[in-house]
Amino acid sequence: MFGRLFATLFTRKIKKANYVLLVQLIAAIAITVLSFTTSGHVYFGRQDLGVFSSFFMFVLFFSFIAALALYCITCNENESINVNQSLRLLPISDSKYYLDNIFTSIATLAYFACIEAIGIGISFLLAFQFDGTFHSEFMTSFEKSGFVFSVNDFIVVIQSLILLVLFCLLFYLMLSFLNFSSQAIISFLPVSIKNKSLLGFIRVFLVFILIWALVKGIRALTPIFDAPFAVFFQSTSSNDLMEPISVFICFDLLFITINLFLFNQYIEPKEKK
Predict the structure, then answer these.
(1) ∠36-37-40 over CA atoms, to 5°?
(2) Contact yes or no for 225/163 (Cβ under 8 A)
(3) Crossing angle, helix 51-82 and helix 2-38, to 10 degrees?
(4) What is the DSSP string of the chain?
């Protein structure tokens, strides 16, 4: 059942990822066509770009917006699925259900990143092949840089991807923690004050308190929590990323444990209206 639910949730989420990719493609094509039909030129700095190089730049630009949009969508989808009454009736433990939900979102992001990489690669090859100015400028810049991809660079890239996955997972878990813990606290309130308006205010207040406590707790537990962000602004080697990766793994495991307890004890499915 774990695998079947994983496949079901993954299929559901990649449909939304495909919609985001489609919107991104349409936006890149539309902006490229509009730019050349209105002004006839697209400039990047002082460089006058051709059609294919312009398309490549717009695909690259919209990829960041699309990635952020998909991440926000999956965050909302996670919390919606957690209380989905129909899915929670499946013969699977709450712990496996929650893990399926979280890990399918990570898998969806990986799928999205792969499709994005292919799309960016294709648009780059089109610009490189059919835009002479882009081709010559790229080759000149590449030769001047003297860049040689080494084994250490490959290790750093892999570790950076692992760090990014762990960061995305941690944010999912922290969002669930804020949701679950606020619901758990509300469940202890007297029945007489449980009206929708008051509960909404109390929950918002609790979320702000929990965010404050979470930030204080993270800073108290480890001063090196900021290290994962610092390493991207300095020269890195494979050893530089091992410590932040270890820190993220510890926090991910901590929040998974806490969330599983809260999910099993306090989170009830709700009827979708």
Answers:
(1) 45
(2) no
(3) 150
(4) -HHHHHHHHHHHHHHHHHHHHHHHHHHHHHHHHHHHHHTS-EEETTEEE-HHHHHHHHHHHHHHHHHHHHHHHHHHHHHHHHTBHHHHTSSS-HHHHHHHHHHHHHHHHHHHHHHHHHHHHHHHHHHHHH-HHHHHHHHHHHHHHT----HHHHHHHHHHHHHHHHHHHHHHHHHHHHHHHHHHHHTTS-GGG--HHHHHHHHHHHHHHHHHHHHHHHHHH-GGGGHHHHGGGS---GGGGHHHHHHHHHHHHHHHHHHHHHHHHH---B---
Q: What is the pTM of this model?
A: 0.81
Average pLDDT over residues 51-71: 89
**pLDDT per position as a tens digit, 5-53:** 889 999 999 999 999 999 999 998 888 888 776 655 555 444 556 778 8
Return the number of other C-beta atoms located less than 10 Å from residue 105's C-beta.
Answer: 24
Nearest to 12 by CA among 92, 85, 87: 87
| CA neighbor of 81 nearest in space, from 27, 3, 150, 10 | 10
Hey, what amino acid is at 62? Answer: F
Cα-based angle 234, 238, 243 (whole degrees, multiple of 5): 85
Dihedrals phi, psi of 39, to nearest 5 degrees: -110, -25
Burial class (CB in 10 A: 0-12, 13-18, 19+), 72: exposed
